[in-house]
Structure formats: C-alpha cells, structure tokens
Amino acid sequence: MRDYKVVVLGAGGVGKSSITVQFVQGVYIESYDPTIEDSYRKQIEVDGRACDLEILDTAGVAQFTAMRELYIKSGKGFLLVYSVTDENSLKELLALREQVLRIKDSDNVPMVLVGNKCDLEEDRVLSISDGVRVSQDWGLVPFYETSAMYKTNVDEAFIDVVRQIMRKEAAVTAEKKQQKEKQKLEQSQLNGQQQSSQIGDNGNLQQGSAGLNGQTNGNASTNATNIPRNSQSKLDKEKSSSESKCCTIM
Ligand SMILES: Nc1nc2c(ncn2[C@@H]2O[C@H](COP(=O)(O)OP(=O)(O)O)[C@@H](O)[C@H]2O)c(=O)[nH]1
Ligand SMILES: [Mg+2]
Question: Which residues cross the membrane (predicted)?
C-alpha cells in the first residue's frame, strides 16, 4: 500500500483541526486545543488504489521553526486552509505557499487551496471569487470552499491532493522508465557498433586461421586467439547462464 503524507497548513483558528478530524473520524469537534499538532492515519481508496494517508494537522504559523521545515520537506501534499470569515488568513497563506515551494524546491507541489467555514454566510468577508483569484495566481491550484461543520467538500479536498500526489508519482515513474529504456537502447546500439567492428576483426583473423589450419603444425595458441571475441563472450555467457540455471534447479 502506498504511503502518502499530507500536511494541513494555515493560520490559527481557520479550522485545520476541525477539517482533519472530520475527514479522519467523521465527527465535528466544536472546540479543539489550538496548540495541538498531531498526525492521523487513514486508509482510503482513490481510483481503485489503496492509500495509507498520514495527515499532519499543524498548529500556528507565526514562527517558522526547524521542525516545520522538516515536516514540509517530508510532506508529499498540502492543504492550504484559510477561513472565509478572516481576510488575514488568506494573506497568511501566500507566504506559507512561498515557504512550501522554497523548501520543496519546486513549482509543482501537490496542493489544494481550501476556504473553510463556508457555512458562516453572515460572517463571510471573502467571496468565492477571492479564492478563485488566488487559485489562478497560483497556477490554477484546485480550490474548494469547505465546511468542517457540515463536512462539505472535506473528503473532496483531501482526495484531490492524494490524486495529485499519485499523478506526480506516476509521472516520475514513467520518466524513470523512459530514461532506463533510453539507456538500454543506447547500450544496445553501442553493443551493436562494437559487434560490427569485431566482425571486421574476426573476418581478418579467420582468414589467417584458415591458413594456419591448412598447415599440419597448426598452432593451438594462435587458434585460440582466432576464436571470435564476440562468440567467446557468448560462450562465456552461455556457460554462466547454464551454471546459474543449475544453481536455480538445485
Ligand atoms: N461554523 C464553522 N465553524 C468552524 C468550522 N471549522 C472550524 N470551526 C470552528 O472554528 C474554531 C477553530 O477551529 P480549529 O479546527 O481548532 O482551527 P485550527 O486552529 O485551524 O486548527 C473552532 O471553534 C471550530 O469549531 C466550520 O467549517 N464552520
Ligand atoms: Mg488546530
């Protein structure tokens, strides 16, 4: 089963813990210790693949500690959470995202932008289009308005980030495979070139050998050198493979 580490980031009070606990345990906790920084595990299936999620619910973003740097480094995907009732919480996310990109040293980091507390229509100070604008500024990072209270879009936001991690890993694997195949092809082309140059050598040697063989005092050591180099290595290969076959049978 694949292991995915997802980090939930955002200003204090935006609902990081509420979202996390709602996703993992399916319950809404009215008041949660704001200082608690904890990790949770949850197994889910995304697109037919089982994933073991480790979700880190972080606390406070005021200080940028070495610890924070460490878990951003180890995180594969990020939920960047603000509250639609708190303008500053969205501003704080801009710096946070910069920090994530800097630490990951990449522009392509699996992440979602989450505008939480969308049930609080009366207290809302940020509209959907404010979130959309930030998402566009970030290169169309998927954006969800959520309500941890009513579990609106909570699963969707987590699944989206997991899917992005999967896609990124698949792309990396495909690239590695492509590189391996390219190396293999280059190697076989190189071998082909070596073989054709050896055939040239052998042609000369075999002519000489035929001459020697025609003589009664054919020199064994000269004959030995006449064994085509490539067929010699082939023989060796056959020998070693039959030896290894023996070993396997035994
Ligand atoms: N109405 C409403 N309140 C929420 C929602 N999410 C969190 N809260 C409340 O906001 C406060 C802070 O939530 P918490 O999860 O502790 O925020 P954190 O500091 O980011 O982890 C708590 O009182 C929550 O009950 C939500 O979606 N809707
Ligand atoms: Mg919290």
Answer: none
21 Cα: distance to centroid of ligand 2 (angstroms): 10
Kindly give the distance from the C-alpha atom of residue 7 to the centroid of ligand 2, in angstroms, as a whole number.
12
Burial 199-219 (b: 16+ CB within 10 A, else e): eeebeebeeebeeeeeeeeee
Please state, in angstroms and rounded to a whole number, the distance separating the CA atoms of residues 187 and 189: 5
Kindly identify the ligand whose nearest atom is closest to the C-alpha of 81: 1
- Neighbouring C-beta atoms of residue 14, cutoff 10 Å: 28
Mean pLDDT of all residues in 167-192: 89
Phi-psi region of 7 (alpha: psi -120 to 50; beta: other; left: phi over 0): beta
Kindly state the greatest CA–CA separation across the chain: 109
Residues with CB under 6 A from ligand 1: 10, 12-18, 30-32, 34, 116-117, 119-120, 147-149
Atom of ligand 1 nearest to the CA of 21: 15
Per-residue confidence (pLDDT) for residue 198, from 0 to 100: 65
Give the pTM: 0.76
- Specify the higher pLDDT residue, 118 or 62: 118
Minimum CA distance residue for ligand 1 atom 6: 15
Say if residues 161 and 78 touch (Cβ distance below 8 Å): yes
Reported confidence tier of residue 36, pLDDT bands at 50, 70, 90: confident
